[in-house]
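Continuing from the previous page of notes. For each protein in this section, the sequence appears first, followed by its structure tokens. Read the first protein now.
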Amino acid sequence: MTIPSNDGAPRSLTSRVAGSTAGRSAILIVVFVAALWLIEGIDTVLGNSLDQWGIHPRSGEGVLRGVVLAPLLHGGWEHLAANSVPALVLGFVGLAAGAGRFVIATAIIWLVAGAGVWLTGGAGTVVIGLSGVLFGWMTYLAVRGLFTRRALDIVVGVVLMVIYSGMLWGVLPGQPGVSWQGHLWGAIGGVIAAVLVGRRGRTRPGTGNSRQVGAIAT
């Protein structure tokens, strides 16, 4: 079947929004957060058994699995809800500023945060939650302007620091049951990502809270 081309014809408001950078970024981050809620729903139905797939610090049990899956798992609906709003805000800003670079930065943060938690997390716990990645997104977006040297990136970084500056206290030990190690290593991963991805972008042509869940001793 041949369908007449609509080139040059006015597009609907919905199609214009979906086709814009902001629209695509919003759709992507909403789908990601919705997937987290779906995973938590499945985990609830299964009696929270998926939580044991998180990171077991300094244990040989499912190291790679834990690093990959821990940010996708949460210790209940309240934990997930606390991470969802900053995920939507920071994820949207990061994707809108450059989806390709943001995906690479996220991979770096994910790996650094996971490895750091495995090395330094509390013994006899299972660490789960997206907040390590969120801290990484925060520091990445806050400092990347120093490396990209783009005015907009610097302004966005300053605004985010003003809004979320209190969040950075989470890298210090304090609240029981909260993995400050995850926050700290996520923040470190964000800075590393800003250095690597920011410099890469500059040289191109034309240019919550993670929770520790009590675990069976391993």
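Done with the first. The second protein uses the same format. Note its length before scrolling.
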Amino acid sequence: MGSLKVTLCAGAAVVAAVLTPAASVADAPGGVAVTPSAPTRGAEVALRVSGCPGRTATAASAAFVTDAALVGADGTLTGGTRVRTTLTSGTYEVTVACADRRLRGQVRVGAASARPAPPPASPVAPVLAGGGGTAPLAAADARVDGPGTAHAVTGLLLAGAAAVAVVLRGARRRRGTD
């Protein structure tokens, strides 16, 4: 009776293996999940990638404002980015560059809703650094607003008076009349 059970189980396993189609390269373990599944233009999206060796990866798509930096461990990486506001509704490819492989997924950008979108939680695009609010001041001609001749003469007179005071004070100390 025991060998009959083993034979039937082995036969069922062989039939299941024969009838199951072989996985292609596109069906390799791993995948790209985008949350929400159908974001609208300008929405924040979270990415979750499984089956990616290493601790970091980059997800790129024409639908994203910037590439998403993904971090994690144990083959699961997460990150986030924002969907471009200038897109039309449709499906866009997402490519994840891992340590030694590329994973592909899709994001379906839906139509914008009738209700107004909440204010962005983060900048829409990278900030151009280099001066911030001082840029208009740096563009102005410094010679126009800088010190003139009157300022220079006043500074020289004050420096001369300070030098005379130091010399007189030193002369008094040497004579001991202080």
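What the second structure shows: The beta strands are 31-35, 44-50, 56-61, 68-73, 76-82, 90-97, 102-109. The helical segments are 2-19, 135-139, 142-145, 149-175. We return to this in next week's lecture.
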